[in-house]
Design a protein that fits this description.
CATH architecture of the largest domain: Alpha-Beta Barrel
Distance between the termini: 30 Å
Radius of gyration: 19 Å
CATH topology of the largest domain: D-amino Acid Aminotransferase, Chain A, domain 2
CATH superfamily of the largest domain: D-amino Acid Aminotransferase, subunit A, domain 2
């Protein structure tokens, strides 16, 4: 497949559809220099984006948390997503909406006079972790930790917060792993580089309390699914020493969906019945 800069199709930018190859920004765009950007990733099946409006609402909330109020309403964002899917003739796709501070009168840390822009793209994208969706992903343990909520707006899905995630995933891939699990600033289990994490022990589920990580929309969906299944869910701080006692593990995220984990560092997990059941029910839910 061609690189992401050289494809046929259309991308919605600031109210109009433009040719894919012409969807460019100036080199002095503020977001390129200071990471002033927020984004969403969404899955579309059968022409319907799962929890689309929740994603659009979170995009606007992320902008507010970065002192970057978006001049685009939820309805405008929703219409943009519909338009770009239609223009590209896609019903099953990954949708990426991104808002950023563009180029303008300011070129420094402050950028109040620069316009806030919005783009929406979509493309076909298979399983985020490849065949790990069936046999279980292999995860490294990252050396970088998720920061304290006193240092970052952790509830925002912001581009700049992924820097250590990129570094951690590169290190993991160099070791033959699919991803890396990160601890938080206190040493508790946090998440993978782009997905939340769940564990199973004695028929009950344990997942990190999202007090310094993004409380993912897929995470929230799966927690509710488990409760509806009468499965006990513990949202709590998980210590590193507990990893050896867990029997199953999976990741959740819009791109990852529900992906089983077979190994984290030296710890092994089975792709068990509950993991398979959650993955199957989630796939049915997003396609309903």
């Amino acid at each position: 497949m061609a690189g992401y800069d050289n494809r046929d199709g259309f991308i919605w930018m600031d109210g109009k559809l433009v040719d894919w190859r012409d969807a460019n920004v100036h080199i002095l765009t503020h977001a390129m220099h200071y990471a002033s950007a927020v984004f969403e990733g969404e899955r579309c099946y059968g022409g319907k984006i799962f929890k689309s409006r929740e994603h659009s609402e979170r995009l606007r909330k992320s902008g507010e948390l970065l002192d970057m109020p978006l001049p685009f309403s939820v309805d405008v964002i929703e219409a943009a997503k519909e338009a770009v899917l239609k223009a590209n003739n896609l019903t099953d796709a990954y949708v990426r909406a991104i808002a950023w501070r563009g180029v303008g009168e300011d070129m420094g840390v402050a950028a109040k006079r620069n316009p806030i822009r919005l783009a929406v793209a979509c493309w076909t994208w298979g399983s985020y972790y490849g065949d790990a969706k069936f046999k279980g992903a292999k995860l490294d343990i990252a050396k970088w930790k998720r920061p304290s909520p006193e240092t970052i707006p952790h509830a925002a899905k912001a581009a700049g917060l992924y820097m250590i995630c990129t570094m951690s995933k590169h290190a993991a891939e160099a070791k033959g792993c699919s991803d890396a699990m990160m601890f938080d600033y206190r040493g508790y289990v946090a998440e993978a580089t782009g997905a939340n994490i769940f564990f199973v022990k004695d028929g009950e589920v344990h997942t990190p309390k999202p007090d310094c990580i993004l409380n993912g929309i897929t995470r929230q969906t799966v927690v509710q699914m488990l409760k509806d299944m009468q499965i006990k869910v513990h949202e709590r701080h998980i210590e590193a020493r507990e990893l050896e006692g867990f029997e199953q593990c999976w990741l959740t995220g819009t791109a990852a969906e529900v992906t089983p984990v077979g190994q984290i560092g030296d710890y092994n997990f089975e792709v068990g019945d509950l993991t398979k059941r959650v993955a199957t029910q989630y796939e049915a839910l997003v396609r309903a």
